[in-house]
């Protein structure tokens, strides 16, 4: 059977079957909702057209020739040229690719795999070659191509090429203002989140004993909370009708509007992004070997000197990583400034208004999106080149572990007080969110009611919030396994294999994280709203967006797990002629099950709560939970929005704790089994 799949005739016939049975051009209403006449008109064989030139070249692979290195190189050249021809000709002719072209791409991929295997690339391992080519295609179509599309669209006004309009847009006075606002907010949030994250990481690793569970809660909160729900909670506390604001106005002479603008955005972003900083810094602190501190103390260093000259320098890469990650996330978020910004505009909200507002302006949105992308990529490249090329190893080999040393008493007091304030503020914040979901009108009528939940879920499955919730679960459940699978394949190839372009592949894969969600959403509209790939308005584009945004999650989880598996396991399997496919799915995958399940759940939860990357992609037929909440916020229905956000938080927390319990029981069972043996 395996030998049969390596024959060109199989893939050529498969592509021709697709050409005959499926439309070569995209259908406006899909395969099942289109009429017979529309489907027939989309078939490539009904008349002499360009699509014949896409499929007929594959017939050359049916000509019998003796297999050789030269022939394999010619085949690769032909297949590469054919792929480029299909893509470029579809753009020029403005033909949106139909379902049959999927068969064509699969055939090109399979034939290219055979040619590369004959050239002994990757030791001739067809599965690894096919996986690598699939990953490259995925990155090209859904990362590189959309990024290029958003750049090109800056120079077009509709179909007219007007390069000078970029300068016209950049000369607008508001551009400098929103750029300055965005950078000032991002830098401030980066500093505050990193400081708070460091304080809490020090608490959980150097101070806490029985209260270390606080760190776990901190690591979960940003994942399960939709981005703008924190902003809504801050509004309930500190907004015009907030109970804290009433106190500040009555006793300290504050203005009712003191929150809205720079201050409110910074507070909400710091609350939302500090846990991300905490997770980065906690891992770095745990990796510092205690023996380096003990060595400092034996040389009569005091605790302040040990921290300043030993711990802090070793934390520099993690601190920089934390700052840069938080800055990127702050720059990309438009929902919090939408709720708390007032007249304080940032780049992300301006892009949102250009796309979703009354004045549709793709050129201005693309220009601002490119500016935002340049900032994010610059930060990402600095992080990748600077941190990635430095070693901060404290101990190599096996050694005495030592005991973690206490922090200076003054520092401990500051950290504990900061954490106490933070915990109290968050308890009140989330308490306000949940309590506010049961009130008639926050700030006006605090009467308890269930009307908000009845409006959401009491009108049947075809109305209210049910359709958006069900569709969100379907989209997230579809995206999560794909994310975990591709993350595993990318991790296995980059960790276990050596090949040219490996660093480039790693960089492009992690680029998914660097591209701001707002920019990703706009780029998908521009790239997939016309020929050659038309996906706008479909559920597929939402799933693909979720997959690409969360792929680094699956990849990092798999890389971390593979780092703990000895290569000899793979080598033993391969030496028994199991092949890479069986090795991955019967040896590596079972051993990585906890890590991949964690990535699966994390990807699912992140997909459920994402907003910036998909808000531009949803339609009335593909509405998701976060876009539904955002619409309620825009309509001023804060009670309904908060109620829906509360439901999402509770459901996501339940899923995470259930998963944690299942994985914990699995590990305990394995441990007991080992002891019995």
From TrEMBL:
Keywords per UniProt: Cell membrane, Membrane, Transmembrane, Transmembrane helix, Transport
Keyword Transmembrane helix in annotation: yes
InterPro entries in the cross-refs: MetI-like, MetI-like_sf
Coiled coil (UniProt feature): none
GO CC entries: plasma membrane
Membrane-spanning segments: 42-64, 76-93, 99-117, 129-156, 183-205, 217-238, 258-285, 306-328, 367-387, 407-425, 469-495, 507-525, 531-548, 595-618, 638-663
Gene3D superfamilies the record matches: MetI-like (1.10.3720.10)
Domain annotation ABC transmembrane type-1: ranges: 179-383, 469-659
Listed SUPFAM superfamilies: MetI-like
Mitochondrion among keywords: no
Record-linked Pfam families: BPD_transp_1
Gene Ontology BP term (one): transmembrane transport
Membrane topology, record value: Multi-pass membrane protein
Subcellular location(s) per record: Cell membrane
Family: Belongs to the binding-protein-dependent transport system permease family.
PANTHER family per record: FERRIC TRANSPORT SYSTEM PERMEASE PROTEIN FBPB 1-RELATED, MOLYBDENUM TRANSPORT SYSTEM PERMEASE PROTEIN MODB
Name of the protein: Iron ABC transporter permease
Naturally occurring in which organism (per UniProt): Ursidibacter maritimus
């Amino acid at each position: 059977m395996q030998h049969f799949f390596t024959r060109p005739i199989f893939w050529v016939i498969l592509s021709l079957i697709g050409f005959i049975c499926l439309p070569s051009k995209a259908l406006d209403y899909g395969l099942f909702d289109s009429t017979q006449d529309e489907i027939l008109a989309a078939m490539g064989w009904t008349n002499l057209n360009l699509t014949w030139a896409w499929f007929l070249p594959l017939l050359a692979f049916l000509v019998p020739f003796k297999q050789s290195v030269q022939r394999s190189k010619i085949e690769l050249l032909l297949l590469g040229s054919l792929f480029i021809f299909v893509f470029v000709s579809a753009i020029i002719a403005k033909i949106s690719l139909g379902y049959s072209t999927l068969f064509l791409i699969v055939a090109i991929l399979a034939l290219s795999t055979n040619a590369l295997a004959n050239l002994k690339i990757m030791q001739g391992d067809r599965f690894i070659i096919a996986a690598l080519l699939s990953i490259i295609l995925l990155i090209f179509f859904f990362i590189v191509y959309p990024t290029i599309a958003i750049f090109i669209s800056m120079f077009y006004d509709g179909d007219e090429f007007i390069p000078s309009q970029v300068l016209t847009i950049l000369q607008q006075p508001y551009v400098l203002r929103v750029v300055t606002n965005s950078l000032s907010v991002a830098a401030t949030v980066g500093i505050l989140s990193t400081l708070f994250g460091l304080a809490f990481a020090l608490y959980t690793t150097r101070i806490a004993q029985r209260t270390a569970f606080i760190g776990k809660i901190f690591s979960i909160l940003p994942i399960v909370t939709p981005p703008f729900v924190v902003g809504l909670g801050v509004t309930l506390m500190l907004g015009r009708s907030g109970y804290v604001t009433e106190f500040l106005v009555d006793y300290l002479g504050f203005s009712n509007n003191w929150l809205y603008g720079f201050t409110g955005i910074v507070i909400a972003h710091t609350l939302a992004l500090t846990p991300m900083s905490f997770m980065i810094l906690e891992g770095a602190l745990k990796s510092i070997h205690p023996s380096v501190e003990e060595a400092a103390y034996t040389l009569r260093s005091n605790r302040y000197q040990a921290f300043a000259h030993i711990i802090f320098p070793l934390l520099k890469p993690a601190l920089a990583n934390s700052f840069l990650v938080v800055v990127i996330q702050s720059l990309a978020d438009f929902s919090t400034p939408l709720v708390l910004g007032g007249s304080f505009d940032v780049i992300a909200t301006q892009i949102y208004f250009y796309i979703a507002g009354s004045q549709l302006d793709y050129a201005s949105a693309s220009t601002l999106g490119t500016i935002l992308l340049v900032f994010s990529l610059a930060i990402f490249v600095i992080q990748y080149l600077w941190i990635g090329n430095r070693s901060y190893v404290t101990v190599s080999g096996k050694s005495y572990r030592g005991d973690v040393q206490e922090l200076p008493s003054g520092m401990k007091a500051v950290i504990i007080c900061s954490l106490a304030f933070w915990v109290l503020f968050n308890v009140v914040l989330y308490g306000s969110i949940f309590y506010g979901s049961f009130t008639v009108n926050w700030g006006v009528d605090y009467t308890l009611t269930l009307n908000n939940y009845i409006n959401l879920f009491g009108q049947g499955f075809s109305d209210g919030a049910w359709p958006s919730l069900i569709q969100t679960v379907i989209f997230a459940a579809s995206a999560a396994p794909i994310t975990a699978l591709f993350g595993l394949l990318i991790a296995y190839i980059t960790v276990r294999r050596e090949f040219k372009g490996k660093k480039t592949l790693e960089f492009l894969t992690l680029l998914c994280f660097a591209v701001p969600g707002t920019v990703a959403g706009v780029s998908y509209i521009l790239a997939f709203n016309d020929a050659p790939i038309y996906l706008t308005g479909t559920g597929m584009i939402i799933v693909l967006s979720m997959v690409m945004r969360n792929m680094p999650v699956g990849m990092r989880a798999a890389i971390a797990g593979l780092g703990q598996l000895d290569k000899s396991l793979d080598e033993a399997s391969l030496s028994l002629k199991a092949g890479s496919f069986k090795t991955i799915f019967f040896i590596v995958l079972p051993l990585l099950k906890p890590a991949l399940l964690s990535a699966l759940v994390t990807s699912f939860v992140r997909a459920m709560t994402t907003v910036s990357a998909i808000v531009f992609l949803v339609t009335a037929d593909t509405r998701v939970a976060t876009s539904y909440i955002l619409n309620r916020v825009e309509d001023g229905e804060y009670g309904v929005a908060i109620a829906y956000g509360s439901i999402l938080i509770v459901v996501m927390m339940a899923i995470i704790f259930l998963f944690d319990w299942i994985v914990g029981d699995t590990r305990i069972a394995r441990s007991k089994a080992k002891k019995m043996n």
